[in-house]
Amino acid sequence: MFRLPPVLAQPVASWAHLYSHSTVASTTIVFLHVGALVVGGGLAIALDRATLRHHHRDATARALHLAELGSAHRVVLGSLALAFASGVALMAADLETFVGSWVFWLKMALLALLLGNGALMNRVELRLRSDRDTERAWRLLRPIAVASIVLWLAITLAGVALASAA
Ligand code: HEM
User: Fold this and answer.
1) pTM for the whole thing?
2) CA distance linking residue 137 with residue 134, whole number of Å
3) Which domain, by its residues, includes 143?
């Protein structure tokens, strides 16, 4: 059986009680969680699609796309931070269920892969901005974009599976 450190036991119990008795609290947290996915995931997938449709030999389109990718990272990372904060609140509302759920840990593993893939994308972009090895770098962006789309959708599926299990 999962045991919380005593210093956390009381605040987590109070939060779980509030969450299960207040529609405002549960609606707000689930909205923040799903809202972060709609904004961050939506923007990320739209740019991944643009990467896959992109004809990298057109210098103007290349520069525009790189600028778009660069400006989107802050919004996507901000959304992920909100998904994380609201996710911890969702998890704390029924800790024993989620800590014991393999779906939850699979979701966390997929999230780590998504962050790693994002860091790789950022490194390739930096290489492109410094005009180093551009043909190979543009080719590398395509599988990274495919991985991003698959991971966002897989994490969402795991999230919905968690909600149905809760
Ligand atoms: C890319 C990031 C994430 C995405 C796209 C995502 C997506 C989702 C979705 C779509 C749901 C179903 C919401 C519902 O129908 O009620 C969900 C539920 C859940 N998520 Fe996430 N999530 C993300 C990150 C996280 C993180 C970082 C955590 C924990 C630290 C987390 C914990 C949970 C929990 C515990 C539930 C179940 C809530 C419940 O129904 O009681 N999620 N997530």
Assistant:
1) 0.90
2) 5
3) 10-165
Q: Are 127 and 34 in contact (CB under 8 A)?
A: no
Confidence of residue 163 (pLDDT cuts 50, 70, 90): confident
Ligand 1 center–CA 5 separation, angstroms: 24
How distant, in Å, are the alpha carbons of 12, 24, 57, 92, 94 from that of 20?
12, 10, 55, 11, 9
Tens digit of each residue's pLDDT (9 = 90 or more) over 42-87 = 999 999 999 998 755 678 888 888 899 999 999 999 999 999 999 9
Asked whether residue 108 is assigned to any structural domain, the reply reads yes
pLDDT per residue as tens digits for the range 24-47: 999 999 999 999 999 999 999 999
Say how many Å lie between the CA of residue 73 and the centre of ligand 1. 21
d(CA 49, CA 46) in angstroms, rounded, equals 5
Q: Is residue 93 part of a domain?
A: yes
Structure letter (DSSP) for residue 58: -
Number of folded domains that form the chain: 1
Q: Is 163 in the pocket of ligand 1 (CB under 6 A)?
A: yes
